[in-house]
Write a structure and sequence with these properties.
7-stranded parallel beta sheet; 257 residues
């Protein structure tokens, strides 16, 4: 359970992030939601959290900006006193899918700046906060990175996204190694094809793949499928496992003849 813990969820206003925020809140956590949109844009979703008795705080900002990352940590601690769980979920896809030979430096910098650099330096900042605060639970903290099957699966029309998610996997490994002596556990969830706004634009492609049998569990993944996995990895039940990842992809990673 998450009773009396505070969880920060980046990209927590919609899709996978919102499902994670709701699940951790239902488990008893105070939830800090970080998103680039204005709070009023997500009023209905936030009100739904309130209706369930979930304590939440919303922080607007861009993961790419150092001052916004600082604001997130500052407001989380000011509102709830501490940070016990960090879920690095925020991420972007290229604004336009383009062949690898046509990928622009601007697109690469945008995707990497948010997905990799922003995740890296927010994790650094939150880890320092976790180390500094009083230990009230079995561990000093849990960090769960929401990566992607794209860390290993090639998509040549969105190479910058694949590279950024491979970077997130190494961020998981590095922080797991560095933070284990501090009593902080770091793991990763790798979603496959999940029904979100990001995948809606290419739904026909994935419908065909699912219909052709590419996924042993032959359906779209739901944000709640990912949220359940995140909730487990963020819990005190995970005490002796760090630097690992859990595929939430309907078995897509299985190599088959």
């Amino acid at each position: 359970m998450m009773k009396n813990k505070t969880a920060v969820v980046t990209g927590g206003s919609r899709g996978i992030g919102y499902a994670v925020a709701k699940r951790l809140g239902r488990d008893g956590a105070n939830v800090v939601i970080f998103s680039s949109g204005g709070e009023e844009k997500y009023r209905e979703a936030l009100d739904a959290l309130t209706a369930e008795g979930i304590a939440w705080h919303y922080v607007q900002g861009s993961l790419e900006r150092a001052e916004d990352r600082e604001k997130l940590v500052r407001e989380a601690v000011s509102r709830f006193g501490r940070i016990d769980v960090l879920v690095n979920n925020a991420g972007v896809a290229p604004l336009k899918r383009a062949d690898l030979l046509e990928m622009t430096e601007e697109s690469y910098d945008r995707v990497m700046g948010i997905n990799a650099r922003g995740t890296l330096f927010l994790t650094q900042m939150v880890a320092k906060q976790m180390i500094a605060q009083e230990k009230l639970f079995p561990l000093k903290g849990h960090i769960v990175n929401v990566g992607s099957c794209s860390a290993q699966v090639s998509s040549v029309n969105r190479g910058e996204y694949c590279i950024s998610k491979a970077a997130v996997s190494m961020i998981t490994t590095l922080f797991a190694d560095r933070l284990a002596p501090e009593g902080i556990i770091v793991n990763e969830v790798r979603p496959g094809v999940i029904a979100t706004e990001m995948t809606a634009a290419v739904s026909e492609k994935y419908d065909r793949l699912i219909g052709s049998g590419a996924f042993p569990i032959a359906r779209w993944g739901e944000p709640e499928d990912v949220a359940d996995a995140v909730a487990f990895l963020a819990s005190d039940e995970v005490r002796y496992t760090t630097g690992n990842y859990l595929d939430v992809d309907g078995g897509f990673h299985i190599k088959r003849l």
